[in-house]
Design brief:
Elements: H1 7-17, H2 25-31, E1 36-40, E2 43-46, E3 51-54, H3 57-60, H4 69-81, H5 94-106, E4 111-117, H6 120-137, E5 145-149, H7 158-163, H8 167-170, E6 179-182, H9 187-190, H10 197-215, E7 220-225, H11 241-251, E8 255-259, H12 273-277, E9 283-286, E10 298-303, H13 304-312, H14 326-341, H15 344-350, H16 352-361, E11 369-371, E12 374-375, E13 378-383, H17 398-409, E14 412-413, E15 415-417, E16 420-423, H18 431-452
Helix pairs in contact: 1-2, 4-14, 5-14, 6-13, 10-11, 16-18, 17-18
The structure holds pyridoxal-5'-phosphate.
Residues 59, 119-121, 124, 153-155, 226, 230-231, 259, 261-262, 287, 298 line the site of pyridoxal-5'-phosphate.
GO molecular function, one term: pyridoxal phosphate binding
InterPro entries: Aminotrans_3, Aminotrans_3_PPA_site, PyrdxlP-dep_Trfase, PyrdxlP-dep_Trfase_major, PyrdxlP-dep_Trfase_small
Keywords: Aminotransferase, Pyridoxal phosphate, Transferase
């Protein structure tokens, strides 16, 4: 079959054969999808030649930017040498060996082993099995419950979707028993009248302790959380939140899982979000930035104290055909080499992170914006009809979608979560591109404001 060339033909073919993730495919087909044909640096080009500044790094993953020949070459070389072999049944291969050792070097000191997967969702399903296996081996099989948070996103497989706290997903899902959701640290949207961010952060963290007590510590296997909730709306927690959670996890006999699928690999200005917030996880979930999205790969780092128990248990009956796929591992190694050589994590902490934040924060003065948080290379704009009263729009999501569509028209990819616009640009964004990003975001706010008047 020869591929049609025009945008209209491509759209028709897509509409006929493609069911899109997280989309109303019927509505999308009526409108026609945007066909992205190439990308370079932080810029995307569609089939009509329009260019967009990718404020979302694809889906929070293209940390080193597009067009890195070095990663393409590494993958191509690996595909020629050993395109596939598995890591089951007493076999391994050099890319998996090298990457596992590299990850042990980059992650906090308690981590020396990784379980490879193909995605963040598979990693979180692995977490469910690992933590339950851990407590079984420790002869505490009643410890099964995993505590998570409302609006968390941990993936789309049945297990991961249940760990997540997204109501629209739960409404379409097969519930698995043993997952309990507590409040998210979303001060702007959920604090009581007069409650300071610090008071709110502490109260929200203490919901973990209260839930452990209410359900019984002998039933709780683990607590899972993203350092900054990403898909839930880039919820940067108040300063009091993580220290209190860390205290609770230290004092209670539960495992703590840090889902670093978004926050890992430099996004918060350290290699991992747990380092930014001073927490000490037992399991660390990774995907996305590990390869900058060039190849699908995920993994779960397992702390030594958990590994010691698992190794006593013999076979772990779990694994994926593509666990540690050689070409994906080669992509990750090349990607991490770029990150280290170009000091991208340091750049987020000391250069582009603070530069972008200073400019992004000025958007908080816009009449449509309630708050404009940013940490590292991840930020949000809460849209509100009433700044002072912290009120929400009556029809949740309508203004967010309107603004998101203006953003595309203005050549900037932002995402809307309810009425919150979010960004997570590539870590290689230049100062000039940061200025451009903020100018386009400001125009988007102005266009939306005019439309709403
Ligand atoms: N965990 C977090 C925090 C995520 O943001 C995502 C995806 O956005 C996932 C897990 C799922 O990852 P994947 O889409 O690779 O399955």
């Amino acid at each position: 079959m020869t591929l049609p060339k025009t945008t209209a033909e491509l759209r028709a073919l897509d509409a006929a054969h493609h069911l899109h993730p997280f989309s109303d495919t019927k509505a999308l087909n009526a409108e026609g999808s945007r066909v992205i044909v190439k990308a370079d640096g932080v810029w995307l080009t569609d089939s009509d030649g329009n260019r967009y500044l990718d404020g979302m790094s694809g889906l929070w993953c293209v940390n080193v930017g597009y067009g890195r020949e070095e990663i393409a070459d590494a993958v191509s070389k690996q595909l020629r040498e050993l395109p596939y072999y598995n890591t089951f049944f007493k076999t391994t291969h050099t890319p998996a060996i090298e990457l596992a050792a590299k990850l042990a070097e980059l992650t906090p000191p308690q981590f020396n082993r990784v379980f490879f997967t193909g995605s963040g969702s598979e990693s979180n399903d692995t977490v469910i099995r690992l933590v339950r296996r851990y407590w079984d081996i420790k002869e505490k099989p009643e410890k099964k419950v995993i505590i998570s948070r409302r609006n968390a996103y941990h993936g789309s497989t049945v297990g991961a979707a249940n760990l997540g706290g997204m109501a629209p997903m739960h409404a379409q899902n097969v519930a698995i028993p043993g997952v309990v959701h507590i409040a998210q640290p979303y001060w702007w949207g959920e604090a009581r009248q007069g409650e300071t961010p610090d008071e709110f952060g502490l109260r929200t963290a203490q919901a973990l302790e209260a839930t452990i007590d209410a359900l019984g510590e002998d039933r709780i296997a683990a607590f899972i959380a993203e350092p900054i909730q990403g898909a839930g709306g880039v919820i940067v927690p108040p300063a009091t939140y993580w220290p209190e959670i860390a205290r609770i996890c230290r004092e209670r006999d539960i495992l703590f899982v840090s889902d670093e699928v978004i926050c890992g690999f430099g996004r918060t200005g350290k290699w991992f979000g747990c380092e930014t917030f001073g927490t000490h996880p037992d399991l660390l979930v990774m995907a996305k930035g590990i390869t900058s999205g060039y190849m699908p790969l995920g993994g779960v780092m397992v702390a030594d104290r958990v590994v010691d128990v698992l190794l006593e248990g013999g076979d772990f009956n779990h694994g994926y055909t593509y666990s540690g796929h050689p070409a994906a591992c080669a992509a990750a190694l090349a990607n991490l080499a770029i990150m280290q050589r170009e000091k991208l994590v340091e750049r987020v902490a000391d250069d582009i992170g603070p530069y972008l934040k200073a400019r992004w924060s000025t958007l908080a003065e816009h009449p449509l914006v309630g708050e404009a948080p940013m940490l590292g290379m991840v930020g949000a704009l809460e849209l509100t009809p009433d700044k002072a009263g912290r009120r929400k729009f009556p029809e949740v999501g309508k203004v967010g979608t309107l603004a998101r569509d203006f953003s595309f028209k203005n050549g900037l990819v932002m995402r809307a979560v309810r009425d919150r616009l979010i960004i997570a640009p590539p870590l290689v964004l230049s100062h000039g591109e940061a200025d451009e990003l903020v100018a386009r975001a400001r125009k988007t706010l102005d266009d939306s404001w005019t439309e709403l008047k």
